[in-house]
Amino acid sequence: MLGETTRDRKAERREATRREILDVAWAVAREHGLAQLTLREVADRVGMRAPSLYTHFASKNAIYDAMFGAAWEECERVAAQAQQAVPDTPRARLRAMTRTFFEFSVADLARYQLMNQRTIPGFTPSEEAFAPSVRSVQSAVDLLGAAGVTDRDDVEILFALIAGLVDQQLANDPGGDTRRRLLDRAVEMWADGVGLPPDPAISGPEPH
Hints:
Shape: elongated
Radius of gyration: 21 Å
Helix content: 55-70%
C-alpha cells in the first residue's frame, strides 16, 4: 500500500545482534576487567562461534570502538538532561555539570576506563566514535564560556580537578562517598579562583 514503509528485517536482526554483542562485551569487561575482554568469551555468551563475530565486528578493537562511542553518547545525553533541570546561574550550572560527570563516571569503572584512560594497548577510537566525546567537551567549554570563563587553561584545570576526584574515588573508595563529599567544595574553590559570581542570595519574607 502507498505510504507504508518496507521493513528491512535482516538489517533489524543484524542490529539486534550487534547490540547483544556489545551488551555482553560490557558484562565481560565489568566482570573481568576491560583488558581481559576476549572474543571467545563474548561469542560463547552470545551463543555463536568466535569467527562469526567477525561478520558483525572486524576485530576486538572494533568492539571497543563501538563501546567507546556508545558510552560517550550516553554521557552526552545524561549531561544535556541534567542541564535542563537546574537554575540558570553560572555556579548552579557548573555544579550540575560536574556532579553529573562525576556520578556518571564512578557508576561504572570499566566504562570510565574506556572513555578516559588508555587501558587498552593499541586501541585508538575512530573519528566517528570519538565525535560524541568532542561534542561533550565542547558543550562544557561553551557552558563555561557563557559564564565568562574563556581561558582554556582554567577549563583544563577544572577538568583535571574533577578527573582527579573521580580517579581517587574509584581507586580508593569504590562505592563510597569520600571524594563525592569533596566535589562541591572543590568546584566552589575553582569558581572563586576564576572569579565566577556567587549565586544570588535567596530572599526570605520581609521582617516585621
